[in-house]
Amino acid sequence: MYRIESHPILEVEGEAKIPFYFNGRRLLAKEEEVISSALFAYGIKVFGHHSKDGSPQGIFCANGQCAQCLVIADGVPVKGCMIQVREGMRVTTCDGIPELPASDVPPGEFKPIRIIDTDVLIIGGGPAGITAALELAPHDIDILIVDDKHRLGGKLVLQTHSFFGTVADCFAGTRGIDIATKLDSEIEEHSNIRVMLNTTAVACYQDKKIGVVDDAGYLLINPKKLLIAAGAREKALSFPGCDLPGVYGAGAFQTLVNRDLVRPSQKLFIVGGGNVGLIAAYHAIQAGIGVVGLVEALPQVGGYKVHQDKIKRLGVPVWTSHTVKCAYGKDRVESVTVVQVDKNFSEIPGTEKTFEADTLLVAVGLNPVNELFDQAKKFGMDVYCAGDALEIAEASAAIFSGKIAGRQIAQSLGKEVSVPAEWQRRWEILKSKPGETYSLEIKTPESGVFPIIRCVQEIPCDPCIYICPKEMIKIKGDPIFGLPEVVGDECTGCTLCVAVCPGLAITMVDLREEGSDGLVIVPFELLEFEINVGEQVDAVDMDGNFVTKAKVEKIAKRKAYDRTILVTLRMPKDKTTLVTGFRVQDPKLSEPIHLPSPSCVDDETIICRCERVMAKEIRELIRQGVRDMNQLKVLRCGMGACGGKTCQSLIMRLFQQEDVDLCEVIPFTQRPLVAEVKVGMLAGEKSEDE
User: What is the CA radius of gyration of the chain?
Assistant: First the structure.
């Protein structure tokens, strides 16, 4: 079994008691568990084989946006990541083209299509959608939220780390999972907010109605105002082996690990150094997964430095100016080859390194899920957009984006509300890229107890200034974006600042003892039993470089620390101001392996996953003069279950590689339906039960 039985942040609840069958084998699933997670819990990662070439199929997005996880459930082809296991369900691999089940419903038996009227329809129950609803709720407005998951919260339910941003505006210092719970409970307090879960919005129509599908079938919603807060989908990356089971997006990984408590990997490699990739590496270590390494094509990571520092301290190497060259394996990922790139992102021959890994995590960015927004604008609806559907940014920015959109919609409905000018400025800061990085200056006394703050990059964050009982921490410069600094010398060593820092960037140095030894208190968010009092550890600096051997003197876990453990390390006094943490990973995990160079043929890279179309097939048509992507459908490219959402950006990159100006390229025509719907549902066909 590959279930996570203990976790430093998440409570492991419930047992797998629901029986179902996979290819005749009896398995057990947890309550509300989706098929894909239940299969991963048994180490089953191949869900079928493609009809075109027999290639193995697994998961990629785990968010309903692609169709890599297609299985047959009780005779019906379904996306395994979206369908919950039912008792006695019989699931089989989808090998080739599935045979559609015959309908037992007599022809001509139809029911009226349900129509729901509402003042405001919000599509997406993540941080932006929820906060927009909460801003609208006090104004006697009828609000309906639809979301395709079984609970509200969006990506917040996957985020075990503490938020950055501001305490006053977006829950800085609080873990994402707790923010999701808090917002959900606030929604329940308002009787004028209706919520439809497990409900997918599939189309916007010319008569300004929205088509959705829920457990009872198909219905239409007739809103006065529409807010799209549907979030984002993973960007794909093309390279030889990118289509192997074991290559999937960071969101899929976090869904398996942090939502469903399934350990999908033993040795993980990550491509992409934004916050998503850096945080995924940290989440992996929390779940007991070894992280072999992380590569980023740019000369520096795009995410927060404190996120990079966290994983480097734990022993994860980060290689900038590197990218993945290929993934290799027969039916799954077995190894990953990376290569150094120059300033033009061209590979440097002879710099290849191959690592043993069973999973390659693609964290190269997100694309907005905004198809319904575009359709609604086309049909003249009064439509608004918020969160990642509007602009990709941090979840704290999505919260503020939703608040602003909620106020704007209330104004459009004639309510006497205003959008404070300061809100716009704060939103701009929260969604901004990291600012300048400065050299660390440590001015420390020779005795006493004092904190050291290693937050040297301008990012929006302020929990530390509120937690200090002596008010010794101030923000220098911009009150949101400036750097924190310690003022005064009244520290009592309470360690609250060490525990509250979202970046784990604060340590407490204690030099009050006589003798040559000093103490350093560092934050630790892994399982308690992974560290023991009395053992020797490799203490490291903020960049993960070895400083000294240190002895674990004390381990403290208190309610006030919010699941952060504080570890006291004993070491020579002259080393105390350098130490930021200690390694937990064995360096041998990240050593390259010596294998014959795997085959890495770029032209044979799969671009269209759904229809198995290779790069060379698309390049040939581009060289023949094709500039309308709809003409690529002669290859069935873009005609798969994802509707071209996954491959379009990859095809655009091929046009660029062929020196075609993208202004000349016509993208895929957007389909009327943005997700699959049974034809019988659209027609109002009655089910057997009805």
Answer: 26
Q: Give the C-alpha distances (Å, rounded to integers) separating 45 from 31, 60, 331, 396, 414.
A: 21, 11, 9, 33, 53
pLDDT of residue 476: 87
Contact between 332 and 242 under an 8 Å Cβ cutoff? The reply is no
Please name every residue paired with 270 in a beta bridge, in sequence order, or none if there are none: 294, 361
Residue 581 · residue 540 · CB < 8 Å: yes
Cα–Cα distance for residue pair 547/549, rounded to 1 Å? 7
Domain boundaries, the chain: 18-98+236-362, 114-232+368-430, 449-589, 602-664
Percentage of the chain surpassing pLDDT 70?
A: 97
- Cα separation, 36 vs 59, in Å, equals 8
- β-strand 546-556 against 565-572: which pairing, if any? antiparallel
| Strand partners of residue 195 | 145
Q: By three-state DSSP, how is residue 327 classified?
A: strand
CATH classification number, 114-232+368-430, choose in 1.10.10.10, 3.50.50.60, 3.30.470.20, 3.30.70.260: 3.50.50.60
Q: Is the whole-model pTM more than 0.90?
A: yes
Phi, psi of 217 (to 5 degrees): 130, -145
Provide the pairing of β-strand 217-228 with 114-123.
Answer: parallel
Strands annotated E in 252-346: 267-271, 290-296, 318-320, 322-328, 335-340
Evaluate whether 462 touches 506 at the Cβ level (below 8 Å): no
CB-CB neighbours of 631 under 10 Å: 14
Q: Give pairs for 533-541: CB < 8 Å, separation 24+.
A: 537/569, 537/582, 537/583, 538/582, 538/583, 539/569, 539/571, 539/575, 539/579, 539/581, 539/582, 540/312, 540/313, 540/579, 540/580, 540/581, 540/582, 540/583, 541/578, 541/579, 541/580
The number of beta carbons lying within 10 Å of the beta carbon of residue 562 is 14
566 with 522: CB under 8 angstroms? yes
For the cut 60, the answer to whether the pLDDT of residue 105 exceeds it is no
Beta strands 383-385; 217-228: pairing state: parallel
Q: Which two tokens stand for residue 536?
A: 């020797």
> In this structure, how many other beta carbons lie within 10 angstroms of the beta carbon of residue 670?
15
Buried b (16+ CB within 10 A) or exposed e, 468-490: beeebbbbeeeebbbbbbbeeee
| Contacts for 164 with CB less than 8 Å, ≥ 6 apart | 172, 304, 394, 396, 459, 460, 461, 502, 503
> In CATH, what class is 602-664?
mainly alpha
Vertex 395 angle, CA 2 and 151, to 5°: 55
Q: Do 586 and 597 meet the contact criterion of CB atoms below 8 Å apart?
A: no
Mean pLDDT, the chain, as a whole number?
A: 92
| Superfamily of structural domain 18-98+236-362 | FAD/NAD(P)-binding domain (3.50.50.60)
517 forms bridges with which residues in the sheet?
A: 572
Look-up: residue for tokens 């503020």? 400
Rounded-to-integer distance, Cα 170 and Cα 481, Å: 14
110 pLDDT band (50/70/90 cuts)? confident
Q: What is the pLDDT of residue 66?
A: 84
- In the chain, how long is the greatest CA-to-CA distance? 91
Q: Retrieve residue 234's tokens.
A: 């993973």
Domains 18-98+236-362 and 114-232+368-430 are alike in CATH topology: yes
Q: Is the dihedral of CA 18, 20, 22, 27 positive or negative?
A: positive
- Report the side by side order of strands in the sheet with 335-340: 322-328, 335-340, 353-356
